[in-house]
Structure of Succinate dehydrogenase:
Amino acid sequence: MSKSKPVFSSSIGKKLIMSLTGIFLCLFLVVHLVGNLQLFKDDAGLAFNKYAYFMTHFTPIKVVSYLLYASVIVHVIYAITLSMKNKAARPIGYAKYDGQANSKWNSRNMGILGTVILVFLATHMSNFWWKFHNDQVPYIEYRTDLATGQTTARELQASEFHDYQETVENNVQILKARDLYKQVDFAFKNVALVALYVIAMAALAFHLIHGFQSAFQTLGFNHRRYIGIIRAIGVWVFGVLIPIGFAIMPLFFFFK
């Protein structure tokens, strides 16, 4: 590597940035899954709608969200750049190459897996993030009797809703919010969308099984003392638990 060449513009630098952004995105998946578990509460979406408002209005979370968007973009661009560079470096394939003998299927098809995930992200953002931020979801009012703890809910007309509001009147807590929960319920009645989510989560599983361990190897965490732990976390947490957790959500709403 030339001394005059910036570190992060080199192949090693790009791999380093991909590793760091990849690990950051993995951490986001954990937080996002925990938050989305509110969808399973039998409360007409009260907990989830509170969570949605918090995630979009709490300043530190908003700052992290901008870092998240930037990480996704950088991760994708560098993945494409490195893939094109590797292909250009070897325009003519080997006379005899047995891919299965040299690497695992997911490591050889990270580009395909990443493309499936990218299509999923675009669909996910347009169905939920875009509609929530552009006032294209229903509105709801929750009334909780503070004496009994019982909550009732009713859909609001657009003329009745101005902004997220939480008040207490006559020992009744009143919450008016955008009903992202109902948008989720509506969207996941579409069998094609549910199928896309399940397929995308399968792609995410294979992508993370290879990507998680690869990221730590790039960062130099490849010692035999802890590589087994990293591999286990990559497989069982990011390759199994998290993708299944996300895949269950659309299936839950489709079949309930």
User: Anything to note?
Assistant: The first helix runs from residue 11 to 36. The chain is about 65% helix and 10% strand.
